[in-house]
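S1.2 Input.
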Amino acid sequence: MSARRDELVAAAAASIARGSKSFHLASQIFDRVTRERAWLLYSWCRRCDDLIDGQDHGGAREHVGNPQLRIEMVRALTDAALAGKETGDTAFDALGVVARECAIPHRYIDDHIAGFALDTDEWQPRHEADLLRYCYHVAGVVGCMMAIVMGVDPADEGTIDRACDLGIAFQLSNIARDINEDDAVGRCYLPVDWLVEADIPPGEHMRPHFRSRLADMAWWLANMEEDYEESARVGTVKLPFRSRWAVLAAAGIYGTIARKVDALDHKAWDHRVVTTKVEKAGWLVRALGQAIVNRPKPRPRVDLWQRPRD
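S1.3 Output.
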């Protein structure tokens, strides 16, 4: 198993290096065991996402002729991996390893796949609560699993809630940044009631004369991101030092995306918003100081979306 595990870790390391420079950078801070497990989990999440969207590590999307078949394949391979079977796909085998090593509750894995299923159904949120539910399935639940990978007891619901908040914050940043890219493939994650209130007809939100109204929605998404990011920071006090440092760095790097989108106003979608190497390095230093002090601003977890319980 050791040789096979080493092979899976190497493949997972290559996957995260290609798929997410921000997460790859932050993961270098973890201790070796946590880092390898984070890579293994990431590789499964990335592979599922690519299979559903017809991508290669988040690159250009291709048309997927039968998305429901893709979901069924993801579920079948995942079930096989969790049962300890070799799937022939390194990313799914990686999930099997990390799920067993960390005793990740299978309900979180199921919840993540449910998020991919929403995308295959060409789903769009009708209300803000629908948007946050989607953010939970595609990213918040990954935060829950990552907390367990970092050693949080699955029964520690309070800390798991805060980890979920960080995943939701990440996804809110993604949605604000990617409104134009999502529209290009026929997707929209802006709630219908937001568009109705802004008097924007369905499917017309990227037209130039609606840019100022779209910027208002991006402002609201950025404010929501900040609320969930700040809530997540409270939970880092329970993490080991190196994990706390890595999480705080990732929070700052991803939060910068939402803040940039907000600052760019109606020009936010002229070019893809990214964080520079200098900004990433700056957050590594700031997060180190925050991790050492380990006294985040107190924030009761009120008025935030609540993930489903058992």
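S1.4 Remarks. The chain has a mean pLDDT of 93.
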